[in-house]
Amino acid sequence: KDALTLQLKWVTQAQFAGYYVAKDKGFYDDVGLDVTIKAGGPDINPSQVIAGGGADVVVDWMPSAMATREKGVPLVNIAQVFQTSGMMLTCRKDSGIKTAKDFPGRTLGVWFGGNEYPFLNWMNKLGYKTDGSAGGVKVLKQGFNVDPLLQKQADCISTMTYNEYWQLIEAGMKPDQLLTFKYEDEKVATLEDGLYTLEGTLKDPAMVEKLAKFVKASMKGWEYARDHQDEAVKIVLENDETGAQTEVHQKTMMQEVAKLLGNNPKGTGWLDETAYEHTIDTLMSGGSDPVITKKPENAWTHDVIEKSQKL
Amino acid sequence: MASPVLKRWLLPGLTIAILITALLLPVGYYEDDYAFWWQFPLSALFIVIGILGAVLGAVWGPKPGPGGIWAFLGPLILLLASFGPVLLPMAELDIHLAGSGIWLAILGLLLFAWQIMQHLTRQPRSLLWAILVPLIFGLCLIYLWQAIVVGFEVPQVLLPSPTQIVQAIIRNWPVLMDDFRQTFLKAVIAGFILGNALAFITALLVDRIPFLQRGLLPLGNLVSAVPIVGIAPIMVMWFGFGWESKTAVIVFMIFFPMLINALTGLAAADAMLKDLMRSYGAGYWQTLLSLRLPVAMPFIFNALKINSTLALIGAIVAEFFGSPIAGMGFRISVEVARMNVDVVWATIAIAALAGSIFYGLLAVLERAVTFWHPSYRSQ
Amino acid sequence: MPGDDSIIDIRNLGLTFQTADAPVCALSDINLQIGAGEFVSFIGPSGCGKTTLMRIIADLEQPTAGSIKVNGLSPREARLQRSYGYVFQAPALYAWRNILRNVTLPHEIMGTGRSEAERKARKYLDLVGLTGFEKKYPWQLSGGMQQRVSIARALSFDPQLLLMDEPFGALDEITRDRMNEELLRIWAQTRKTVIFVTHSIDEAVLLSTRIVVMSARPGRIIDVIDSPLPADRSLDTRETAAAHELAHRVRQGLRAGHSYDGH
Amino acid sequence: MPGDDSIIDIRNLGLTFQTADAPVCALSDINLQIGAGEFVSFIGPSGCGKTTLMRIIADLEQPTAGSIKVNGLSPREARLQRSYGYVFQAPALYAWRNILRNVTLPHEIMGTGRSEAERKARKYLDLVGLTGFEKKYPWQLSGGMQQRVSIARALSFDPQLLLMDEPFGALDEITRDRMNEELLRIWAQTRKTVIFVTHSIDEAVLLSTRIVVMSARPGRIIDVIDSPLPADRSLDTRETAAAHELAHRVRQGLRAGHSYDGH
Amino acid sequence: MATKRPGFLSPRGRLLPVLTVVALIIVLWYGLAICLNRQQVAERLDGLGQPWGISDLIAGTWSMDRPVLPAPHQVAAEFWKTTAEVAPSSKRSLIYHAGVTASATLVGFVFGALLGIILSAGIVHVRTLDRSLMPWIIASQTVPILAIAPMIVVVLGNIGITGLIPKAIISMYLCFFPVAIGMVKGLRSPDLLQLDLMRTYNASAWQVFWKLRVPASLPFLFSSLKVAIAISLVGTIVGELPTGASAGIGARLLSGSYYGQTVQIWSALFMAAFLGMAMVYAIAGIERLALRRMGAQ
Ligand SMILES: Nc1ncnc2c1ncn2[C@@H]1O[C@H](COP(=O)(O)OP(=O)(O)OP(=O)(O)O)[C@@H](O)[C@H]1O
Ligand SMILES: Nc1ncnc2c1ncn2[C@@H]1O[C@H](COP(=O)(O)OP(=O)(O)OP(=O)(O)O)[C@@H](O)[C@H]1O
Ligand SMILES: Cc1ncc(C[n+]2csc(CCO)c2C)c(N)n1
Ligand SMILES: [Mg+2]
Ligand SMILES: [Mg+2]
């Protein structure tokens, strides 16, 4: 059996259910692959891992993948699992914020570490400075959790539809106390979880073959997870080495993640070219400090997924 | 035991032999064939200068004498000779496996550097040598780092080369200075002063009140073992995203080393000296000021020095858990994710420099305060 | 011999050290009264408990048997009244203070003004022949010089009771003679109570109003000899017949004390 | 007086300490030859440089002027041949070793077998009267006892050259006499070269074949006196007329040495 | 010379004071919990639209799901649940995670202490090393380890080293420093006379090292070892963070923090603290044995 290593972007959770399901249900075995899934974490940068040869495929978000590509690590998107973005900015209603016009002078929590680009683009679009100067917004580097909002240290924080938002709810906030700004709605959304590999890998037909098998089994896993959510959650929990994840939370997460898979007529994981173009445009329009300065070439390919659908 | 003659000539002889051998070996692979030094006359010339230097050093170096021109000439020749291997990669050679000549030359140059350091160490104590010796050592490390990164084509995202780091420092100077102000000038200084002061006062209390000694100290051990990575998020939760939470983390981190050292120091006074104080009927404060504090000073400085590095680490680590958008920890975590590893290392370099200067100042102060301690007297 | 006015009153005193192997009985059944203004010398074989007895008087060691009163008070109370000037067997100088500041130390503790303290310190440093070494540090002095600093320190703050443990042991004969003369002079002037340990019989004879001879293991008092010598003395007093006779008696006692511990 | 066979040959030796304030000239223009088997005593005022001279001989201090040869070698080479047994002015015991193991220390270093080392250690501990204290730690001993441990340690490994810096300063007269006798006996048996610092003129007279009298600041040799006493001596030798005369001469020298430094 | 240890480790009569202080802390803690959680509870109670009193508020602050500061009994309950009520081999058992962390800590500590001792020996003996290496040892500690921890994990992961070793290396990197610094001081602590004695015996450097420098340095060694093992534990936990979802107290802290499970964070913190204390006491015990064998006063 062929060995293959997958590096996740974050810790074991339902966000990655498809891969765990594929492994647990034997979908990888079926295509003759022995897949190792490496969980990520706050300081694991998947691109760095793959550049160092620590993985064959990584799950990453397109903004950071493209930024990395400009740094000389030739990442190529071989499948786009989440069709739409799950990112949003969630504000407390009692802070007095009603629309994006109220942002200036407010404190906004933002994830950094490659996840800040969509936010910066948005603010750029709105014409708000983020460097702390007058008339702009005050940006905090948001840490691991939603505490800043709960404790009113920030007026708004970044959340994912499938994760932090529900943590706020679990912490006792009511949906009607919260105001959300979905990036999709603000037209600054960028593509999130996708599968990336190195350009060099794709030059080798045998590797392409292998990747196609991997994508096939993974997508099968995702579809299974979407259709059997309770079972998928169980599998995720079993794979969680910290033993800290709760079933309630993972179930909600699974539900929300399933929505992001979308239903592309060309199949799960198909990269939509217009969405790609939109992401690239967003990334290049970063004002004085764009994420990427020139249009990437050959940053994606449909070869692998096409091959996988023919298997 | 080896004869003195052998001892005297072993290292110089080895150095010269290695450098000469290096000249005969290929330096890399170029257009499908081995390349040799003589195809790169300038590089070869520098190595030859190095060999001549090593020979001169072998003859002059060990001679005693204050200063001695070799103390100045040696580093100079070393600097020149080091250009030999540095120039080669510019010729777009494939060095990493084929370049046995280049690697051997580097080894020889490092040995040469060691001898120069040995010679400088024998010079009478002065600030010049006290700085020059570690400087040469550090330059050697950096040189080796550069050689390996360039020679083995280590990807920049894993480990940038020193030259790339220097470029990043220059490029990002204003940003890096802002970060420095935020992290060092605000959080570290405040935390360092506050933490050490609190720990010291606690040590005095604990030393004074036996009840505390028995009640608080076992718990002190407990608290000290709480990792900062657990504390940092809590402190951010309690004290906000600004520098105050970093200061709190630092206080927490450096408390234990100071407490333990201060307590050990306060108990370290020689029995007879304590008896003398007793015989004067000296009060607690008098004994403390005249006897126990001076005796405790070496221990207290030990803690201060350890804490100076801990404080910096603490502040940087705490910034990983929430910060405004400035600060060295913020910069590192953000730029790692952006794959700007050169900026990361630029920040690390500044942190290391600031920390070393901080430590150095403490060391100077220590020498002034505890000049009487045998560890200084003997030198 | 002193009666009620005794400044030190020791009764049935004993001290046994607990050590890891066997307990060491350092002092046993000591009885002694010392009057104000007396100069009492202790003499006895090495290890017989002289230092230990001094330490008990100065409240640096607690007796395990018997009682002791200093000025009618416990040694602790006397210590808190700052009655003691103690010259230890080893110099006990503070490495981080120069010579002058080692001598001014007790003054600082007792709150003497700075200039007054320095004046006194310089005076006594001169007395012990160390003028010119004020700015040196202890490790830059020879053994005998260090001991003299320690003597200057004890004398300089004019304590009520002077405890001196072999103060002149590390000095050459001439320096020692000079020190003896100075001590005699100071004692004649101030009539301080002095308790003095020495190994030199001549020195004991010259200085003391009373000589206590001890024996070793366990340390006991085997003889207490009142000096018949006149109060007014000089170095030449040693050469008188009375002095020779006294020295002889002390020597006998010492010999007897030695025979206790089977060597 | 020794000629070419001199084991120690000091010529125009001088040493000046650099200190923070003024340099201290500890020794100046020392010339001395010591033959094998001699017993040479140094005597002189406190601080005159006796310890410093010993330290130079043992290669613990480097002279700043002149030359010195030990056995025709430099002090360093002699030290490398393990020629020295040094009794320091202070006991210099290792606090973490018990008494026995303090004495076996040099044996361990020179690689004597363990049982042999212990046998010798016990023998010399007995000689200095410390049998029964083998298992005690240094801080449990009196000052004189500690110094005796240090003496036992130096004697026990039979060094070629014995350097003793006021070894008996902290001992009472009787113990000291006994030590003197032992030292005489050992010297008579082995004819080791001994260099000896003492403050006791009687002791110097009793033990030495030659007495070197020094003066202070800067330390100089002012007199070198060959002893007229017979080789075969006992404590009673001190009472002979020759001895008295010798003592007188040493005392004169000492006095002269003292007058140098304006006290 | 040998420094006297403060007597705080003697078991004699320690229980009462400790209990008093603990009781004091618990009372303070409950108070603090009210202060810190008050705001959120008050909001929630307001949200219910019914009148509420102080007792409701207090009860609320001591029983929140996601408190800012959990009450002691909540932490105790969680601690009990995750240690006593699940099998020690289960991933939900804190004991299991503590074991994972402890093993990496010990490996890192042992190697770190050895490295520190070797470096200090080199520095004390080779003057060139003293002058040249020392400043760089210090500089090494000013490198923020968490910054290079992911790099270490990644780089080592690339060459196939995963699991315990990367963590141990991080903890070693942190803990060799106090040992090296303390031992340089300690190995230089014998006084001049003691060194001179060795010189007169022409003892080899090796003998001076073993028979004089090492015994004289033991008090310094043990006090730095105590600091080092605490730091070593911190190092391991830091090393567990970037590896994210793996096992260990660090991973536990991370996920607790990530999901806002304050109670879980606090019980993991307590486990870390207990682990650290156990290790410090183990060293103190060895110290006591060693110093007693050396006849300490
Ligand atoms: N701390 C201690 N622990 C155990 N035994 C001790 C301690 N201090 C002293 N001793 C023992 O008590 C006895 C008396 O000691 P002390 O120091 O009083 O003698 P000394 O008369 O002053 O002798 P020296 O003239 O040699 O100074 C000795 O046998 C010594 O071993
Ligand atoms: N390390 C030093 N630094 C400066 N001066 C020193 C040092 N060691 C000794 N001296 C000085 O050298 C002189 C001689 O000292 P040394 O110890 O040799 O005297 P000594 O003859 O042994 O005296 P004693 O009989 O009191 O032991 C003294 O004046 C002393 O102050
Ligand atoms: C420190 C930190 N950084 C980023 C996120 C944002 N985030 C939420 S889910 C997820 C996984 C990627 O799909 C990411 C990165 C966070 N919560 N904490
Ligand atoms: Mg005594
Ligand atoms: Mg001397």
Automatic annotation (TrEMBL), chain B:
Coiled-coil regions, chain positions: none
Membrane-spanning intervals of the chain: 9-30, 36-60, 67-89, 95-114, 126-145, 184-206, 218-241, 247-269, 310-331, 343-365
Main location class: membrane
Keywords linked to the UniProt accession: Cell membrane, Membrane, Transmembrane, Transmembrane helix, Transport
Localization (cell): Cell membrane
Membrane topology: Multi-pass membrane protein
Residues of the ABC transmembrane type-1 domain: 181-366
PANTHER family on file: ABC TRANSPORTER PERMEASE PROTEIN, ALKANE SULFONATE ABC TRANSPORTER-RELATED, MEMBRANE SUBUNIT
Protein family according to the UniProt entry: Belongs to the binding-protein-dependent transport system permease family.
Protein known as: ABC transporter permease
Organism: Dongia soli
Top-level taxonomy: Bacteria, Pseudomonadati, Pseudomonadota, Alphaproteobacteria, Rhodospirillales
UniProtKB/TrEMBL annotation, chains C, D:
Top-level taxon: Bacteria
Lineage: Bacteria, Pseudomonadati, Pseudomonadota, Alphaproteobacteria, Rhodospirillales
UniProt cross-references to InterPro entries, sorted A to Z: AAA+_ATPase, ABC_transporter-like_ATP-bd, ABC_transporter-like_CS, ABC_transporter_ATP-bind, P-loop_NTPase
Signal peptide location: none
Family the entry assigns: Belongs to the ABC transporter superfamily.
Key words, A-Z: ATP-binding, Nucleotide-binding, Transport
Molecular functions (GO terms): ATP binding
Biological source species: Dongia soli
Domain ABC transporter: 10-241
Protein name, UniProt field: ABC transporter ATP-binding protein
PROSITE patterns listed in its UniProt record: ABC_TRANSPORTER_1 (PS00211), ABC_TRANSPORTER_2 (PS50893)
Short name of one Pfam family: ABC_tran
UniProtKB/TrEMBL annotation, chain E:
Membrane topology (UniProt): Multi-pass membrane protein
PROSITE patterns: ABC_TM1
InterPro entries registered for this protein in UniProt: MetI-like, MetI-like_sf
Sections of the chain in a coiled coil: none
Major location category of this protein: membrane
TM stretches of this protein: 15-36, 100-124, 136-156, 263-284
Alphabetically ordered keywords of this record: Cell membrane, Membrane, Transmembrane, Transmembrane helix, Transport
Localization (cell): Cell membrane
Similarity comment: family membership: Belongs to the binding-protein-dependent transport system permease family.
Superkingdom of source: Bacteria
This protein's name: ABC transporter permease
CDD domains the UniProt entry points to: TM_PBP2
PANTHER family: ABC TRANSPORTER PERMEASE PROTEIN HI_0355-RELATED, ALKANE SULFONATE ABC TRANSPORTER-RELATED, MEMBRANE SUBUNIT
Domain ABC transmembrane type-1: 94-287
